[in-house]
Amino acid sequence: MARTFTRPKIALIGAGQIGGNLAFMAAQKQLGDIVLFDIPQNESVAQGKALDICQSSWVYGYDAKIKGSANYDDVAGADVVIVTAGLPRKPGMSRDDLLDTNVKIMKDVASNLKKHTPDAFVIVISNPLDAMVYTMAKVSGIKPSHVVGMAGVLDSSRFNHFVAEKLGVSIEDVQSFVLGGHGDDMVPVVDYCSVGGVPLAQLMAKADIDAIVERTRKGGGEIVALLKTGSAYYAPAASAIAMAEAYIHDKKRVLPCAAMCTGQYGLKDLYVGVPALIGKGGVEKVIEVKLSDADKKALDVSASHVKELVDEANKRLAL
Ligand code: TXD
To answer: Hey, whose CA ends up nearest to atom 14 of ligand 1?
Structure first.
């Protein structure tokens, strides 16, 4: 019996700034066929972006079916779903300020994914991230290994860029990860940051490291203030694509993601940023690392903020 091969199907829920870039990046990497989905009043934008990306295919040499839609029938059966549905921040807003509006949107999306893509690997990007990924898992009922939040890859990538820029080294040789919530109390774990295998603390003064930690924590707000009309989209899209690729190609990557903790780091039944092993089984393992007392305390503070956000989301879901 000849084997039949089909390309993976990737559904992008939200065809805005990040959604459009997700579609273009996924096409260029030939990750699969793509459905760019948005609400009916924005369906033509989704269709226009999909058509524009199709018309780039000859230049880049990618083969993929790319469709814009506002009909969940086109999303049905997707292998990977990446969710950016929701409002972005404007200057002066915190990620938490988005909770009221975005939890309603996430409930709508999650209800549809429960029906149309119950077996998909779902990557949530919408803010406030830690509450949105929790809402997705709770409402969709999709198993926790297949519901994950994108934040740590972005935050670690920001940290790594600042380190590479300060030291004048290749970004390829900087490794680090960020734990905790996607907020101003996130925890870049400096003890585990290395440059070409050399611990960062041997290469950079503490004051400079502290400045990079602070700039990373405020990295999203820095871009919101510069753009004035929304938040970052290139690096968030690239970060989510790395996670999707790890799943589609069973790469067993170890990436910082908002994953369900079931006791790791002393955290139970909470989505929080941790090192996660991602392969064809989704989040196949949450990796626990030894933390200094200071970093453990900082993680506990960040996790308590996540818990507060989740409590607020639950109040709204109960309405
Ligand atoms: O690291 C991270 N996780 C963050 C996440 C990094 C940057 C941005 N972060 C958040 O992603 C941001 O605060 C927003 O909550 C989301 C999406 O940001 P984006 O910049 O892409 O916002 P846009 O351009 O406004 O796009 C959102 C799209 C828009 O086209 C809406 O029409 C659509 O979402 N939308 C919906 N799509 C489907 N279903 C529903 N219900 C819906 N409601 C709005």
So the answer is: 88
Q: Decide if 302 contacts 213 (C-beta within 8 A).
A: no
Q: Are residue 88 and residue 105 in the same domain, yes or no?
A: yes
pLDDT, tens digit, 9 for 90 and up, residues 225-264: 999 999 999 999 999 999 999 999 999 999 999 999 999 9
> Atom 10 (ligand 1): residue with closest C-alpha?
126
As a 3-state breakdown, the chain gives helix, strand, coil percent values, each rounded to 5, of 50, 20, 30
- For 175-184, how does the pLDDT look when each residue is reduced to its tens digit (9 = 90+)? 999 999 999 9
User: How many domains, in total, are found in the chain?
Assistant: 2
* Residue 13 CA to ligand 1 centre (angstroms): 9
Exposure letters 150-160 (e unless 16+ CB within 10 A, then b): bbbbbbbbbbb
Domain end: 96, 120, 149, which one?
149
Cβ neighbours of residue 62 closer than 8 Å, sequence gap 6 or more: 27, 28, 30
Q: Which atom of ligand 1 is nearest to the CA of 150?
A: 3
Look up the pTM and report it.
Answer: 0.97
Catalytic: 305? no
Residue 181 Cβ inside 6 Å of ligand 1? The answer reads no
Measured CA to CA, the distance from residue 170 to residue 13 in angstroms comes to 34
